[in-house]
């Protein structure tokens, strides 16, 4: 096999492993082992002739396949995808190690395409797109070399370079056509589908509000600067910190299920319902209680807050816990749907509004005097098999808490213990916990969902009704305007606990400032990453309006150029003549780079007004020209040109 082709196969397999890693569903030890085996394959090629090496390699591959197949059959859907991707990646590494004179690479090409296709459903972001651009070039080039080069022996001199130049040009044309289709063909990057709704695979490509809480994410999310809301308070007051968008009740060991009214059987089971006060105003009955324990002054603020919601993709009006009423400005194509857990869904018709404005009045909504037995049972439910680290932490909290501590004091004790003894890490970063047990043991840092899950379960083990809440935190103030800006990177999870006489109280165990610290990247690499994220956001946000603006710009440019040519005929003629000379000079240079024998043969054929027919050789052309009784001098010139061409073409 030509050495160039072997290195191309190595590049394709490494990119396949990159596709798998970008999904965030495969554990690092497996990937590191596959990366290492693929990287040393060129060094192991010389060992293929040894029986002991083949036996060892094949035994290791069979054992790995057996383990992955067993795990895929006995595990759930999430691990089935992980094992399937690992099986495909292991197959690629195995094929790479065995390709030679007897093993053709057809299966490697096919499996490589399947990996790129499948992973595009789970990580179609900037990183995957960059990897795919490199993959497209390598795949086309490898296919051409595999078809054109002999399977044994050295390829003709210059053949690899010629084929590589042709393959790269074909790849560039394919990518250019893809870009043209991208610009002209309508598509929607934000549409929901079966994959995102049913599988819940891996982590989100960016930190943003999500209607799910998962603890098994391993990919490092992107911290997006895209604005979600702007909050304006009168007289420089501070807005509420926590803006809720979803509540989660049932824990399945790896994540939380959203609130479902059918589980509680009553719309008044947990929260005071919203009522319609007017065509644009909703309110909840309020009491004079403004002092719910466990909340901050900002969450108890009674002044009204003007909210502009820029990003409506979450399908929510984000509201503080202590919201007594909100006024929605009329927006065509938007309706609100208050839920039984106090969440207000935003219903869009058609394309939906670009932004929604509403005013929030914070107060103390009338709280339920008591939870029903069904609600209390659901809100104090713990896993059937409580993890050992969770039980150990709960016993430590009981031991260190005051003997006569109230429920609110015990809840605050658990919150402060987690905030002070466990560290914050984004998923997928070095030192990040992979499981809840790792986080509770302190062997890995956790993100906000780890803190919220641990606190909620610890409270439930002490018979304190609680739930996990997802939304945003308001913590960034615009120095120029004084308004608070909530960005996608400010997505957060926390806990709400219910206490008799107080109702629901916000409890946030994530260390203060952890979200802001994690989001504030400095340095040249961080700036470059943010710039690339901004460019990619513009690419993925390219829609009908942007397409219309592009065509309008092209039309305006053509019109302005035509007006310029008409108004300045002399200058335009000089420019056109200069361009024509440059093109002619470029063509002349291209001809001069061709071998002299080829140029001489073409000149001799033009003199006789002849051209090569399909499948005809220059020698056969010479015979045909002589049989036509052409000019003897021209025939002699053609004969010399054919001999020179044959010497140039077939010289060793």
List the keywords:
652 residues; alpha+beta; six-stranded antiparallel beta sheet; 50% helix; eight-stranded antiparallel beta sheet
Number of strands: 17
Oligomeric nature of the chains: single chain
Tally of helical segments: 22
Query: What would you report as the Rg, rounded to the nearest angstrom?
Result: 34 Å
Strand content: 5-15%
Question: Largest sheet, order of strands side by side?
Answer: 5-6-9-12-7-2-15-14
> How many separate domains?
4
Sum up the overall morphology in one term.
elongated
**Secondary-structure content class:** alpha+beta
Query: What portion of residues is helical?
Result: 40-55%
Distance between the termini: 21 Å
- What is the average of the pLDDT values? 80
The largest pleated sheet is described as:
8 strands, antiparallel
**Low-confidence runs of at least 5 consecutive residues:** 190-205, 288-301, 516-520
Q: How would you describe this protein?
A:
The structure is a single chain. The protein has 652 residues and is α+β, with helices and mostly antiparallel strands. It folds into four domains: 182 residues, no CATH class; 314 residues, no CATH class; 49 residues; 57 residues. The protein contains 22 helices and 17 strands. The strands form three sheets. Strands 5-6-9-12-7-2-15-14 form an eight-stranded antiparallel beta sheet, with no helix packed on it. A six-stranded antiparallel beta sheet has the order 1-4-3-13-16-17, with helices on one face. Strand 5 and strand 6 form a beta hairpin. Helix 1 packs antiparallel against helix 5. The radius of gyration is 34 Å and the shape is elongated. It starts with a helix and ends with a helix. About 5% of the residues have low confidence.
């Amino acid at each position: 096999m030509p050495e160039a082709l072997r290195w191309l196969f190595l590049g394709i397999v490494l990119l396949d492993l990159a596709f798998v890693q970008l999904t965030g569903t495969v554990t690092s030890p497996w990937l590191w082992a596959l990366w290492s085996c693929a990287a040393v394959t060129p060094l192991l090629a010389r060992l293929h002739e040894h029986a002991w090496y083949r036996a060892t390699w094949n035994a290791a591959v069979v054992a790995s396949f057996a383990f992955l197949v067993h795990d895929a059959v006995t595990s759930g859907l999430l691990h089935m995808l992980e094992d399937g991707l690992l099986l495909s990646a292991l197959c690629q590494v195995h094929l790479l190690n065995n390709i030679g004179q007897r093993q053709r690479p057809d299966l490697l090409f096919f499996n490589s395409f399947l990996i790129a296709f499948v992973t595009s459903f789970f990580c179609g972001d900037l990183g995957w797109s960059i990897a795919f651009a490199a993959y497209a070039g390598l795949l086309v080039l490898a296919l051409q070399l595999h078809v054109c080069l002999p399977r044994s022996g050295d390829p003709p001199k210059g053949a690899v370079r010629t084929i590589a130049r042709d393959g790269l040009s074909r790849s560039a044309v394919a990518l250019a056509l893809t870009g043209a289709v991208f610009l002209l063909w309508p598509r929607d990057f934000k549409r929901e589908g079966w994959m995102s709704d049913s599988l819940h695979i891996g982590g989100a490509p960016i930190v943003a509000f999500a209607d799910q809480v998962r603890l098994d994410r391993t990919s490092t999310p992107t911290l997006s600067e895209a604005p979600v809301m702007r909050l304006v308070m009168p007289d420089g007051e501070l807005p509420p910190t926590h803006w809720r968008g979803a509540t989660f009740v049932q824990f399945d060991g790896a994540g939380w299920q959203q609130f479902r009214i059918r589980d509680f059987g009553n719309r008044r089971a947990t929260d005071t319902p919203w009522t319609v006060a007017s065509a644009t105003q909703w309110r909840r009955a309020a009491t004079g209680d403004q002092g719910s324990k466990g909340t901050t002054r900002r969450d108890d603020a009674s002044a009204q807050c003007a909210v502009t919601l820029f990003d409506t993709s979450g399908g929510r009006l984000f509201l503080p816990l202590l919201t007594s009423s909100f006024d929605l400005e009329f927006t065509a194509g938007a309706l609100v749907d208050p839920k039984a857990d106090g969440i207000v869904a935003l219903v869009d018709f058609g394309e939906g509004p670009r932004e929604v404005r509403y005013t929030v009045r914070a107060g103390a909504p009338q709280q339920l005097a008591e939870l029903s037995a069904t609600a209390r049972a659901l809100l104090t439910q713990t896993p059937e098999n409580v993890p050992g680290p969770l039980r150990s932490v709960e016993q430590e909290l009981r031991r260190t808490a005051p003997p006569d501590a109230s429920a609110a004091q015990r809840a605050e004790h658990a919150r402060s213990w987690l905030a002070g003894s466990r560290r914050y890490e984004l998923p997928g970063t070095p030192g990040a916990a992979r499981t809840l047990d790792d986080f509770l043991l302190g062997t890995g840092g956790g993100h906000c969902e780890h803190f919220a899950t641990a606190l909620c379960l610890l409270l439930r083990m002490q018979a304190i009704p609680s739930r996990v809440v997802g939304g945003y935190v308001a913590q960034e103030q615009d120095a120029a305007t004084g308004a608070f800006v909530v960005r996608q990177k400010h997505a957060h999870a926390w806990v709400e606990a219910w206490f008799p006489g107080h109702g629901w109280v916000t409890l946030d165990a994530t260390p203060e400032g952890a979200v802001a610290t994690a989001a504030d990247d400095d340095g040249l690499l961080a700036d470059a990453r943010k710039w690339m994220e901004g460019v990619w956001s513009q690419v993925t946000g390219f829609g009908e309006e942007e397409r219309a603006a592009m065509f309008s710009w092209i039309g305006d440019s053509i019109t302005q150029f035509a007006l310029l040519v008409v108004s300045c005929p002399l200058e335009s003629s000089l420019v056109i003549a200069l361009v024509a000379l440059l093109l002619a000079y470029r063509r002349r240079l291209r001809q001069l780079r061709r071998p002299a024998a080829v140029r001489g043969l073409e000149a001799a054929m033009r003199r006789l007004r002849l051209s090569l027919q399909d499948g005809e050789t220059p020698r056969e052309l010479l015979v045909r020209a002589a049989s036509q009784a052409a000019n003897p001098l021209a025939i002699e010139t053609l004969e010399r040109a054919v001999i020179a061409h044959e010497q140039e073409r077939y010289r060793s």
